[in-house]
Design a protein that fits this description.
Length: 253
């Protein structure tokens, strides 16, 4: 059965994959953070995201009903089968770029989960409510660093401007909707991303203003995650993430 044949399965993949890939990216900072406190903070956020990914992908596997597990979906799918938001697969860059990516995604997930907890699908609603508690911290943490760095030294301010230039063109992908979204919105299961976008834009503008940063306008947006289209970076990330399960199928420890 094609993965897009079941809208709910497809929807769960999007949620799980986004958290999984971002968690993997943040995990790359473990032992390399700019200060010990941030090394630990980023690692804890990564663990939260992997936990969220596990829950959503486990539910996706149940919905699919083909005997696959959350581990199978994480480690044994190819790049075109992944549905994570494009911004999550972008390289860490310097700490400013990592924090900017985290802020933009955390702001999105905060308002997304706040809407998803109203879903008529009880499992999705419960997972959203639990995830929202964690993302609340992620958003508070990243917001404070955006303000600190944006309104800091000339160098930190310039690095944050550079981060915006690198990442902003992927933000449109967060709000792209297709037939899967439309089908599930009618059923009261999915979230109308237009509602999320309005709240997200308000929050981003608020934080950027305090950080003396400017919200870009009229930027060409790169989309495609809904169709499994990705940037060059996801393949490299998956190769590292999946090497052990693919090299030793069925291995347990």
């Amino acid at each position: 059965m094609p993965e897009k044949a079941n809208p709910l399965f497809e929807y769960c993949l999007r949620l799980g994959d986004t958290s999984l890939v971002l968690g993997q990216r943040l995990g790359e900072w473990c032992g390399h953070g700019p200060i010990l406190e941030e090394d630990i903070a980023l690692t804890n956020i990564a663990l939260d995201l992997v936990g969220q990914a596990t829950a959503f992908l486990k539910y996706a596997a149940e919905v699919e009903g083909n005997g696959r597990t959350e581990d199978d979906l994480s480690f044994l799918r190819d790049i075109r089968d992944f549905r994570n938001l494009l911004i999550t697969e972008q390289p860490n860059g310097d700490y400013g770029q990592t924090i900017m990516r985290q802020f933009l995604v955390s702001a999105f997930l905060y308002y997304f989960y706040d809407e998803l907890k109203k879903s008529k699908d009880k499992t999705l609603a419960a997972l959203a409510e639990k995830s929202l508690k964690e993302v609340t911290y992620h958003l508070r943490h990243s917001s404070s660093w955006i303000i600190r760095l944006g309104d800091g030294t000339p160098e930190s301010h310039q690095r944050m401007k550079n981060a915006i230039d690198e990442l902003w063109l992927f933000t449109g992908d967060m709000f792209d909707m297709d037939e899967t979204d439309k089908t599930l919105i009618v059923l009261g299961i999915a979230v109308d991303l237009n509602i999320v976008k309005a709240s997200w834009q308000k929050k981003v503008t608020e934080v950027f203003t305090e950080a003396t940063l400017t919200v870009p306008e009229n930027v060409f947006m790169i989309i495609g995650s809904r169709e499994g289209k990705h940037t060059e970076y996801l393949g490299h990330l998956l190769a590292e993430m999946q090497v052990l399960p693919r090299s030793f199928p069925g291995a347990q420890w």
